[in-house]
Sequence to fold (1454 residues):
Amino acid sequence: MKIEIQGLNKIYPNGNHALKDINLGFGYGMFGLLGPNGAGKSSLMRIIVTLMKPTSGRVLIDGKDIQKHRKELRSMLGYLPQDFRFFTSLKTWEFLDYSGALSGLRNRKERLAEVDRLLDQVGLLEVRDRQANRLSGGMKRRLGIAQALIGNPRIIVVDEPTTGLDPDERIRFRNILSQLSRQDVIIILSTHIVGDISSTCQGMALLNKGDLVFSGSPENLVRQAEGHVFRLHLTPYEYEKVKEQYNVISTIPVETGWEVQIVSDDPPVYDASAIVPNIEHAYVYYMEHKLRTSLID
Amino acid sequence: MDFLQNIGIVARYEAKTLRRSWFFRLFAVGALFIFTILNIGLFSPVGDESWEMISIPSAVPLVNLYLLNIAQALVVIFLAADFLKKLDTNEVLYTRSISNFEYVTGKTWGILRLFLGLDLLILGIGLLMNIISRNMSVNIMAYLWYLIIICVPTIIFSLGLAYMLMSVIRNQAITFMLLLGYAALNMFYLYHRAGSLFDYMAFGLPVFKSGVIGFDNPGMLVSQRLLYFSLGLALVMATILLFKRLPQSRFQRGLTIVLLVVFTVSSALCATDVYSNYKKKINDKNLVLETNRQYENRNFVSITEADIELSHKGLTLEASASLRIINDNREEIDTWLFSLNPSLSVSRITSGGSDLSFKRVNHVIEADPGKTLLPGHSDSLKIFYSGTINESFCFPDYTDNVKDNPYRIDMLNVSKRQAFLTEKYVLLTPEAHWYPVSGLNYYPSNPARIKIDFIDFTLKVKTSGNLTAVSQGNRVTENGYYRFKPGSPLTGLTLAIGNYLSDSIMVDSVEYISYYFPGNDYYKKDLAGLKDTLSLLVSGIMRELETNFSTKYPFSTLTLLEVPVQFYSYPRNNTQTRAEVQPSMVLVPEKLSTLRNAGFAKQFTRQKRRMARNNQIITDKELQVRLFNDFIRNTFISGENFRFVNGVAHNEPVRYRLGPSFYFFKNNFYSSEYPVINAVFESHLQKVEIPGRAPGMTPVFGGLSDNDKANLILKEYSFRELLAKNPGGDTIRTILAVKGDYLFNLFRAKAGIDEFKEWFLKYIDDNKFRRVDILQMNADMEQKFGFGFYPYLSDWFNGKELAGFLFTNLQATEIISGDRSRYLVSFTVSNPEPVPGLFNVSFRTGAGPGGMGPGGRQVIMTEMQGSRGGGFSISMQGRGMEASDISRIVFLGPEESRRINIVLDAQPRALLINTILSRNIPGEISLPVGDIPRSRERIREVREEEILPLIPEISDPSEIIVDNEDPGFTASRQVMESPLKRLLGVQDRNEQTYQQIRMMNAPEYWQPVVQSAYYGKYIRSAVYTRGGSGDRKVSWNAVIDKPGYYDIYTYTGKSGDRMMIRTGRAGGGGGPQGAPPAPPPPGGQGSQGDSPYKDMRFLIYHDEGVEEITLDYENAEGGWNNLGRYYLSPDSVKVELSNLSTGRIVIGDAVKWVLQE
Fold:
């Protein structure tokens, strides 16, 4: 199964051009959408899950336009919105049961078994009879992912799933997605947290202010940053100067002053050593440095 | 069936979510609690079990769902308007594979089934009470029907409207406001308009289900409820189309559009049907009025014999009527006019073996006999006709509006039907003109006019199926026909066909027949002890009736015919007789459901228990006798088996009274010049109390009695002018009663009370079942008494001037002769007006009954049962066949004064005067007889009346009196109205001039009130207002021409308005100039609680300035109270009273300046 996005534009009634001529394609596995707040990630997601119509362009799933085949798409979809809320008066299992029934699990017995399996998978089996409004924030997100997973969806769309989660919950969440991505499903993960785009993402796209600025694998993104990330040891005076000249990724105070990581096309004049970039470095290199310099050029 | 499954899933979880919401939980728990209490209170053996509620079992589900539905309609609004609010919550569901149709429909079904579940629970409570009640049967289908009729359309429509508004407005607060506003508008404004077209809650819709015929108006009910059901669904469909979610199924979107069109068209058709029915009724009524207007001045023949043959053909009837007619007009007639229900079409008219040409103008048949019928000549004809009955014809001057003309059993609206013609049941009363009638049912230019024929009827009826036909007269069955032959001429014939059973009993040569529906003879069990004494009881009651009306019951049978509860007749202006009472027949409501006293079993238990508590011993049989007598008296004699809701009488008192049997169905006086004469005679002779307010209330609290209202109107218009104006029913009935009282008091004044009674009773007996021209009666009276009343009728009918009476110098003396005391009561009465008038006199005495001898009659005071004050009314004094409650009628010529002397055997306490038709307001005057000196002188020859040479001076020349009715009196007009009231145009002031005193919510302006205790020449009135800060004032202004010291007095009228006064002192006082002394508070006026009257601040303007004098109302004398002595120079003088008081009420009447020598 393959998702193709062709010439997608979204202009809101207030004139905000949220998506600008997006062209993208990806298949099974996890696909990450990265970008700062307001980049257009949620707009793209909402179009993909048929909550919204694009102004122009189309999204094809195996060649079928989703706007013309909404029923088909919705029957294979699991969606966890950025702001996941639910019926507070329903119990945990009831909410899943409701979602499951609507996702096509008609047999009550099978559905209830599936509900319990998923609750177990997301670690909520112990609170299956607890009303949803009495769950902790992490539990609620897990319930969200569980409802997105029920009915064996072939496309799972998760929008900013880790926002507000503590590190443990975030790791647990990533693991769940990671396991899922090994099956024949497409997972579209949208996030502004670079760490969420783990190595499990087979592909990713970088959005900025509605523009698709990068698409490819995370490795490609990282590769582009190789040789452009440096570690420097600076005196306070030097640090002030470096801050003005370069994109600083991290700053750690040391005895002699500061240990600073920066991105730069060329090695700085200071005592600098090139380091192996990670995806966070790559993101900063791309968003803060490359885009800025291309704009200046 | 994914489609249905998806709907079911959404519905299940929607219902679950709502069920767990606090709002719904609170509502449900509250409703369950309230309705449990309500059901226990109304229907259970430990509750009220009022007969109105329990007699017809469909009332149980109806009461429950009627009330619940109102609350539910409001709660649904809150829950449904939440529909689109939870967008984020629903977002994960919106990405699921369900269509918008499935989702919205599922939500709707979820809410609906939740509420229906609650409804079923509450119905279950009702059903439980229904089952355990010993006095009710169970009508299980009614539970289902009411759920479908009342609740489902209301909920669906409320949901659809809420969804729609939320979808369009997308603002929950505004949606709430609009929906709640609409609900309120429905309940307070729209429910009765356009034939219940806008009543989505079925708030005013008559849905009461008869236990005999079920719903009488299924077509209308279906249309009205389907209208809202369809409209609700159409709105749901529109919501689906407007739903802010991308649709996923083209088919279902198409289906939604199709359903939207279908439901919209369906609701439009239903609305059209409801509205066209409503319009049709109005048009039909207008057509009847127009036709009547066209024919009302034409001469009609009179029918003397009618031989009617009728076949019941399911929903139609086929009939022929052979009529014997006579021309009793003074002119010859060449066209025979009849009236027949407009839905009955005439196929043929024959006379003397040949066909007559005829034409039909709506309900009027114009037959052309081809010859002239001379006055006094007779002829015959036969009319063939068939068809149905148009009920709009029956009372063309009334609308069916449920607000203006409510017919309710407790809170439940009942449909008003005037006839039934169905396969299973038929009821045709003369008002439906189901046979040709000579005359019109309503005369638009004179609604009090009536044409009565006494007809020898013969009726042959063929029924369909095994149904029983019931009509007046002896019934025989021959050749599959029922044949009826009444024993005497009747004014009209009634036919009922149904599944009737009957019982009869012969008492004193009158056969009493009861026709009832199977299972509705519950009273036999409840009053089983009466079986062997029933004859005796019936005989006693009939004797009582005959004594009351001083004439024998004129028929050989009296049939009590049970009819469906929906049968209802409107009061008419041309007679006091309702269609529920027919000659020798009373149409009693199904299971006597509208009659409270008919719940014998409950009353028996309750009274038995009460008596046991009071250690009273009564046998079961004695108690049953008491219950039976109470019921019969309240229903058929006094006719006061009715209730007041917000001052409006429901189930009017005269619906079942047997009074018409003693005059209206027996006698008829007619006049071509004064066509109102029969209605006037009837009003007086049948002693009818005007319905519409609690009797005895207004005179006690300072309002206007019906007589007073009539006199105020008659000051402006003559009787003729008033009739031409076609006033409302209550007005015309009030005027008829007063005019009748005047006329008969005139007869009695001229002929002598006893002499007239003796003659008149024989006269009407000699002329029973005959029409008597009033000229003939005049001639007969002239021959008998040398007094012709006809010349008086011109002024009585056309005159506008009224006499006015001033009563002064009331004295009483006890004369002891041996061991016997007698009392001489004297008073002076003057009529300064240029027209003659009369009044009648009675006494309240301290002696026991029967204390009156020659010259005085025993007082019969009309005790008003069940009223809130226990007061009495003098306005009916001198009314009735015998008028045996009066001592004297005094006729006073223009500008004449007389001294009246009356000798009594019992000690008089008060002189009760009814001035009937006069300028006096109130016209009912009660003058207490004060100290009675003893005298041992023998009573000399006392002249009953002495004409005085001059009209005595009413006031002393040294006094200046300014009353609140005088030009010298001014009241501040300032009225502070709230902005909201101003905006809505709500006026505090009632259009009626004089109101009764409101103790609790006194007006914020000076409101005139009348009462005989107040000061006044003719109008004994005062003004009162709410006590406050002194912002409202009244002033009495006069001009004096002599300087000197003046004693200044204010008049304090104390009487019934002292309801709350703790230490009230009775009347006393009395004005020096003969102003009426205040009577003691009437019996029953309590002396408990806090007085609403306290300090009253008068400002006295005098030569040395202004002085404030405070009068303590509680300690003030009834009558004139001295405010002090002041020096006044010749000039304008003034006394002011403000509303500055610690009391709730301030009242002002008259001020007097008395020059001191």
